[in-house]
Amino acid sequence: KVQGLQVHRLSRKTAKSHQKSFEKLTRRGYAPVNVSSVVVQGRRRVTALYEKKNVGGFHLKSEMTLKQYNAFFKQYNKRGFKLVYLNGFNRGSKPRLSGIWYKKVPYSSYWAKHYLNRAGYQREYNSLTKRGYLTRVVTGYQHRGHRLEGIWYK
User: Fold this and answer.
1) What is the tens place of the pLDDT at every residue in 36-93?
2) What does the pLDDT look like over 123-144, one tens digit per residue?
3) What pTM was estimated for this model as a whole?
4) In this structure, how many other beta carbons lie within 10 angstroms of the beta carbon of residue 96?
5) Which of 24, 30, 46, 140 is deepest in the core (most CB within 10 A)?
């Protein structure tokens, strides 16, 4: 435990149960740090970590299609929010993403790369780390082969 850090962990919740916890925690000043979904026997389970901190506002989308994700990404970026977390998973044969955007972030520049195959991801990784960016998030899912998403910042 880090001195003074206030966190709350939710594990293997149903989507409905997670939503209730989300509402309760955010009213108390907690912000989502990560929200990871898996589908087990056709039912989505959510594991999440929340931290009590001021991020200047946030948006959490816990299950998006690829098309929805692209639309939210553009919308939130235009409004000054930065993507800080992304999780990929499959619901049946359909890829899904969960994402968190913060208004206030501890970095000045970031890149988010989407729908990359392994070679494309490696090229982006090499290029961005060479320019001083640090890898913040990497996630993958199955869709016409293995696909990767990544976030880098400095």
Assistant:
1) 999 988 899 999 999 999 999 999 999 999 999 999 999 999 999 999 999 999 999 9
2) 999 999 999 999 999 999 999 9
3) 0.92
4) 22
5) 46
145 close to 93: Cβ distance less than 8 angstroms = no
Burial 102-116 (b: 16+ CB within 10 A, else e): beebeeeebbbbebb
Residues 78 and 130 sit within 8 Å (Cβ to Cβ): no
Three-state SS sequence of the chain: CCCCCCEEEEEEEEHHHHHHHHHHHHHCCEEEEEEEEEEECCEEEEEEEEEECCCCCEEEEEEECHHHHHHHHHHHHHCCCEEEEEEEEEECCEEEEEEEEECCCCCCCEEEEEEECHHHHHHHHHHHHHCCCEEEEEEEEECCCEEEEEEEEC
Please, is 152 exposed, middle or buried when counting C-beta atoms within 10 Å of its C-beta (0-12, 13-18, 19+)?
Answer: buried
